[in-house]
């Protein structure tokens, strides 16, 4: 794929929120189109509460209870504005667009939004910070990410990298997390193909645990933990599902979910913003292949009636320090997983997982790898061939 330029422009919505267009052609003028909605000024009362037993922060965002929930298709707020149907996107069309979430879990809140902690010694709270953004992958309401062209997927990669760099540089942000929830089963409240970006004011527990594991591994062996894990999986080969020139995808040996993939760049980088052009180009193609494989995991005899495979696609990036520099010991990677374990059957997080955070998986990772490989578009299913070349 030829590297293409992406044209970025920034506008403001009626309530002051930022909107960033990532256009595939120049001079669209989209960012200049005014938002005609009479919106009240954007404000949130989010707060962060500290749990001393787990040493973790919990975000409290009670205003989200009133967010838009599964609107009919003709009221989708993520469609472009068409005539008098005013949406979150003032322009009449877009390629990829990112804007601040109107109902954010994380957003700077004034100090007076905090409850009065006087007389409540157990309450340790601080005003929220950070930012939540929505990423629309296409203006086509009925598409999925897996329907996108490689060129469009490449534009999304560019948007992710741009947001990672910009949000990571903010003083109130410690970690930038692009993700997509797909499917009613995951709790999606808008059907339009979109993802989200959470810019956390703290390092989320999973990233903190990986960082600590990497620190211990470095102290014990002198090596980078992520490099070791990727090298070990590639040497084992058994769970590799796809490998190209710049990326490798495997089912982790200790997978938690019925079908779970980790996708790593072969040259370690801390964040999406640190990927070079060749890595970004191949990522766009590899990611589409993996999503299409997920869609092919549960072929339905009764085609058209079963909802597509629900999934969560979770970018793991390096935490950023107070000066905006990402932790170079941490390796960017994607975790892609579905909670569907068989047609019509979901894995529920029950007593052991929800109560103890101790995971029990019903599907052997080696079997999952076989099934994912079989579902991949032919061109991507080439792990053996690649191994022989190396
Ligand atoms: Zn829509």
How would you describe the overall organization of this protein?
The structure is a single chain. Strands 1-2-5-7-9-8-13-14-12-11-10 form an eleven-stranded antiparallel β-sheet, sandwiched between helices. Strands 4-3-6 form a three-stranded antiparallel β-sheet, with no helix packed on it. A two-stranded antiparallel sheet has the order 15-16. It is globular, with a radius of gyration of 21 Å. Residues 380-390 have low confidence and may be disordered. The chain has seven helices and 16 strands. The protein folds into two domains: 7-202, HIT-like (HIT family, subunit A, 2-Layer Sandwich), CATH 3.30.428.10; 206-389, HIT family, subunit A. With 390 residues, the protein is an alpha+beta fold. The chain is 23% helix and 21% strand. Bound molecules: zinc ion (ZN). The site of zinc ion has 5 residues, from loops.
Uncertain segments are 380-390
CATH-level-4 superfamily name of the largest domain: HIT-like
Bound molecules: zinc ion
What pattern of helices and strands is seen along the backbone?
EEEEEEEHEEHHEEEHEEEEHHH
User: Strand order across the biggest sheet?
Assistant: 1-2-5-7-9-8-13-14-12-11-10
Give the oligomeric state of the chains in this entry, treating copies of one chain as homo and distinct chains as hetero.
single chain
Largest sheet: 11 strands, antiparallel
CATH class of the largest domain: Alpha Beta
Give the % helix.
10-25%
* Number of H- or I-type helical stretches: 7
Mean pLDDT across all amino acids: 90
Q: Can you tell me the CATH topology of the largest domain?
A: HIT family, subunit A
Percent of residues in β-strands: 15-25%
C-alpha Rg, in Å? 21 Å
What is the CATH architecture term of the largest domain? 2-Layer Sandwich
Termini, distance in Å? 23 Å
Tell me the number of strands: 16
